[in-house]
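This is your field. Please look over both lines of this record.
***
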Amino acid sequence: MAAPLQAVLAISPAAIARGEISIEFGAAGGYWSVMRRLWIWLALVGWLAAAWSAQAATGRVIKVLPQFLDLKGRNSLSPSLHERDLYQVTLREHTNQCSGMQFMVQWKTKGQPAAPLKLRVELRGVAHGDFPKQLMLEKPVEPGGRFSHWTEVTLVGKEYKSFGQVTAWRVTLWEGTQLLGEQQSFLW
């Protein structure tokens, strides 16, 4: 194997023995170098274009829990979910013990919003005359984190008494004037 290598390199055995040989491998020039640089630049520009064109924010309303509040402002007598459901049945049947309603809204957004976020709760009540009563409640919300958030929107006091019984509701999540998500009752 040494003879063909010496023939190719044209180096004498004496030079090899003295250690006077040095081999340098240079970077490949020409066509391949230009193509490699071109592909790197194209990949970088494509990645930046994709990042710029991504939408700012998306969102949705996951769950809405409409709950009655008693005269002390409570929706349950204990932290038990079973107890809460039983107490809600009692308050629904005995409306004279109710001081209002709260809507517990679970919502989530992804991305950075370009405008302030708000939850809007639209209510329809019992019809008096031709059209049912309608009411709209809004609450600004702040995005943050990767997980969903719970927000409480309440209807209490004189406003609740004058509105009467709620027959249908719709909850929407807005980014400025753009609708991100909604959840509504069956009768909406």
Notes: Residues 118 and 140 are 4 Å apart (CA to CA). The chain has five helices and seven strands. Helices lie at 2-9, 13-18, 31-53, 81-93, 157-163. Residues 3-8 have pLDDT under 50 and may be disordered.
